[in-house]
């Protein structure tokens, strides 16, 4: 039977859908809970922008409003996941948001090698040595990112790691710096599936090699049996949210013994003292990363005191976030470990807070930071 409704007056399904979206989405936007943090993306949501004549005139308000609406779009996580699954599983796209998956490991592309950045890292190290400890030989180690173990083998582009190591050696005097090569001590399985960092329980041998190079290896507790393994379930690393693909969470393991349990960590920025593993981060609604239980996360300058260490030796580490989980494994050998993160404090200021006399010196940076060294102050 033909409809008596004139064709011109009929409302098509797309029009009805569009009208529903126009009227329903604003209601959902208002009713959706406004959490302050995207746990999956490890960042804070955009706040509702302030309205000023200047911001409206310069379009700042509209730009900020667009960010706010995108962050608070109803079921945003669902649609991000749907897009990623469609791109990778239906369209056979090999990566999403520069993240690819190999053996359930999420890995972020890092390419190409930025030779100028590598040289800049070496120059920064040389300048610091000349300024603060000109007569002391320092050690340095390069931590490979996960691409080293998976990119070339699976036809993904990656940086030239041999070239990076060569550039560092060429620009650092052997008399001033001793290189500790740890590349062959690690595998892809030593890293979290959903995160960039290595697993603490997998780097005891790395800690041992570093301590040996510094002349303190005999004092370390080097076997798993000498530690108690503590686990935290449902660790979603930084790549989980960036990939937006369905992935099983990791289990985060942290190691304790009597030495670590007795140690304390002082933080320059807050002038507070905490334990080596800051478990309060697990309950902090503002915390977006469970990896931050290690020393409370990367900070400008921290000092670990270890009253049960076998020696009264001191170690100073110029570090990135990877050092947060390896430093506790060195506490049997050092009564004091100072950690300096030049992403958060200027190299010109560290002399006001750190005494370099009679201390062992270690630079430990991962390949991604060396390849993007502009963030070092």
- Terminal CA distance reads 77 Å
Q: Which H/E pattern describes the elements? A: HEEHHHEEHEHHEHEHEHEEEEHEEH
- Main beta sheet: 8 strands, mixed
The side-by-side strand order for the widest beta sheet comes to 6-5-14-12-13-11-9-10
Strand residue content: 15-25%
Domain count:
2
- Assign an overall shape: globular
Overall strand count: 14
Q: Structural class, from secondary structure content?
A: alpha/beta
Helix content: 25-40%
- Total number of helical segments? 12
**Low-confidence residue ranges:** none
Give the integer mean of the pLDDT values: 83
Radius of gyration: 25 Å
What does this protein look like?
This protein folds into two domains: 12-74, no CATH class; 102-375, no CATH class. It is 30% helix and 18% strand. The protein contains twelve helices and 14 strands. It has helices spanning 13-31, 53-57, 60-71, 76-90, 115-132, 147-150, 161-171, 204-213, 238-243, 258-262, 323-326, 367-370, and strands at 37-38, 43-44, 99-102, 105-108, 138-143, 177-180, 228-235, 250-256, 264-267, 272-275, 301-305, 314-319, 336-340, 360-366. The strands form four sheets. It has an eight-stranded mixed sheet with strand order 6-5-14-12-13-11-9-10. Helix 5 packs parallel to helix 7 (161-171).
């Amino acid at each position: 039977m033909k409809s008596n409704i004139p064709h011109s007056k009929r409302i098509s399904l797309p029009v009805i859908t569009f009208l529903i979206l126009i009227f329903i989405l604003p209601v959902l936007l208002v009713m959706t809970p406004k959490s302050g943090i995207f746990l999956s993306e490890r960042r804070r949501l955009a706040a509702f922008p302030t309205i000023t004549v200047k911001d409206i005139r310069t379009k700042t308000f509209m730009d900020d409003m667009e960010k706010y609406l995108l962050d608070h779009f109803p079921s945003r996580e669902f649609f991000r996941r749907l897009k990623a699954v469609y791109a990778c599983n239906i369209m056979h796209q090999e990566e999403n948001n520069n993240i690819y998956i190999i053996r359930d490991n999420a890995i972020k592309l890092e390419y190409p090698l930025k030779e100028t950045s590598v040289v800049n890292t070496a120059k920064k190290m040389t300048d610091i040595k000349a300024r603060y400890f000109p007569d002391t030989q320092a050690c340095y180690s390069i931590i490979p990112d996960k691409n080293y173990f998976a990119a070339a083998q699976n036809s993904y582009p990656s940086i030239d790691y041999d070239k990076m190591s060569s550039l560092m050696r060429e620009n650092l005097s052997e008399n001033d710096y001793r290189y500790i090569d740890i590349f062959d001590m690690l595998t892809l399985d030593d890293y979290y599936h959903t995160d960039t960092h290595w697993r603490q329980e997998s780097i005891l041998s790395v800690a041992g090699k570093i301590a040996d190079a510094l002349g303190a290896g005999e004092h370390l507790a080097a076997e798993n049996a000498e530690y108690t393994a503590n686990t935290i379930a449902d660790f979603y690393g930084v790549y989980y949210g960036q990939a937006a693909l369905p992935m099983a969470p990791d289990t985060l393991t942290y190691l304790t013994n009597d030495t670590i349990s007795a140690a304390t960590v002082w933080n320059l920025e807050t002038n507070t003292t905490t334990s080596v593993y800051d478990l309060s981060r697990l309950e902090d609604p503002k915390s977006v990363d469970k990896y931050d239980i290690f020393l409370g996360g990367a900070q400008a300058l921290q000092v670990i005191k270890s009253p049960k260490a076998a020696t009264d030796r001191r170690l100073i580490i110029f570090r990135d976030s990877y050092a947060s989980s390896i430093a506790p494994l060195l506490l049997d050998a050092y009564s004091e470990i100072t950690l300096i993160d030049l992403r958060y404090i200027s190299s010109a200021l560290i002399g006001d807070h750190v005494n370099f006399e009679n201390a062992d010196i270690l630079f430990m940076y991962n390949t991604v930071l060396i390849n993007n060294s502009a963030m070092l102050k």
